[in-house]
Design a protein that fits this description.
This protein is of the alpha/beta class. The protein is built from twelve helices and twelve strands. It has a domain of 216 residues: NAD(P)-binding Rossmann-like Domain (Rossmann fold, 3-Layer(aba) Sandwich).
Length: 354
């Protein structure tokens, strides 16, 4: 039975990947490694926690000794690396946390995989092994009104978060070139869907509309992002892990650009309707707040390569995915309430108080 380690598997994207792999591949044992920081939540995986091919491991990728011991013990055949500090605002207030987790943590995993797979420049790529590194479109920087990020777009990170992810990407490619470590990489656009920690725009605004709280909009609200339903991202990860070419990078996007303010007004329209309110009633909650430093104007992914070479494309329209997402959050108010208590409240007050 093949052993696949998924890091950050209790987080938003990771939990969807873990669930997909556990349910789809009965002939593989899936290990979920997560430190259970504020964004990791085992409630996300209650439906599969009893499966015979699933094991949860609590641990931190920044602990090299722990990681080495785990790899030696379990002898993983594959790694899907999602664990990361991922919120731009938090990276501005605490950049070192992002350096430690995203850069050092990634190198710890690379070293451990290289050791058990006995990779070096004079050896062949080890058969049946793969290290899959999940990254972000933010490493490419900011686009103007036209154009798209390609896999060949030069890196130009603008925030501590994107700089830390860019660095980790470079290390992954360096291990491929220096040690013949079998790697693949993907850079993905903004994800949305169930179980996302409500520091991110869509769950934050659904929750605030639900509770009649202000809707903080950075700057003029005209920042543009490409949005992808998280379950489609999990499907893409499955495809790349199993059929992606070693050493290659694939961009994953939703072909779906929205300015923040237009997305917010769409959310208001749908949530108000589902809550039985007058159309647009919650627009009065929109509050423009001071822009954050290093705010990229526009991200847009060209996902032609993964579509043409591996046959993946989004399975739902944005309207379909958003409707499913809103229904989930409105039906899971208890989940939202539990994750928005304590330290999150302090963070929220500090971030948006003014």
């Amino acid at each position: 039975m093949k052993k696949i380690l998924i890091t950050g598997g209790a987080g938003f994207i990771g939990s969807h990947v873990v669930r997909l792999f556990v349910n789809k591949y009965a002939d593989a044992h899936i290990y979920n490694l997560d430190a259970l920081t504020y964004a990791g939540n085992l409630e996300n995986l209650r439906d599969i926690e009893g499966k015979s091919n699933y094991t949860f491991v609590k641990g931190d990728i920044t602990d090299a000794a722990f990681i080495n011991e785990l790899f030696q013990k379990e002898q993983f055949d594959g790694v899907i690396h999602l664990a990361a500090e991922s919120h731009v605002d938090r990276s501005i207030s605490d950049p070192m946390a992002f350096v430690v987790t995203n850069v050092i943590g990634t190198v710890n995993l690379l070293n451990a995989a290289r050791t058990i797979w006995k990779c070096n420049k004079d050896s062949e790529f080890p058969a049946g092994k793969k290290f899959y590194h999940v990254s972000t479109d933010e490493v490419y920087g900011s686009l103007g009104e036209e154009g798209f990020f390609l896999e060949t777009t030069p890196y130009e990170p603008q925030s501590p978060y994107s700089a830390s992810k860019a660095s980790s990407d470079h290390f992954v490619r360096a291990y491929y070139n220096t040690y013949n470590l079998p790697v693949v990489l993907t850079n993905c656009s903004n994800n949305y869907g169930a179980n996302q920690f409500p520091e991110k725009l869509i769950p934050l605004f659904i929750n605030n509309i639900r509770n009649n709280k202000s809707l903080p909009v950075y700057g003029d609200g005209k920042y543009t992002r490409d949005w992808l339903w998280v379950e489609d991202h999990a499907r893409a990860i499955d495809v790349v892990y199993h059929t992606g070419v070693l050493g290659e990078t694939y961009n994953i996007g939703g072909f779906n650009e929205w300015q923040n303010i237009n997305l917010i007004k769409l959310l208001i329209k749908i949530v108000d309707q589902k809550l039985g309110r007058a159309e647009g009633e919650s627009e009065k909650l929109i509050t423009y707040v001071k822009d954050r430093p290093g705010h990229d104007q526009r991200y847009a992914i060209d996902a032609t390569k993964i579509k043409n070479e591996l046959g993946w494309e989004p399975s739902v329209t944005f309207e379909q995915g958003l409707d499913k997402t809103i229904d989930w959050y409105l039906a899971n108010g208890e989940w939202l309430n539990s994750v928005t208590s304590g330290d999150y409240q302090k963070y929220y007050a500090n971030q948006y108080a003014h």
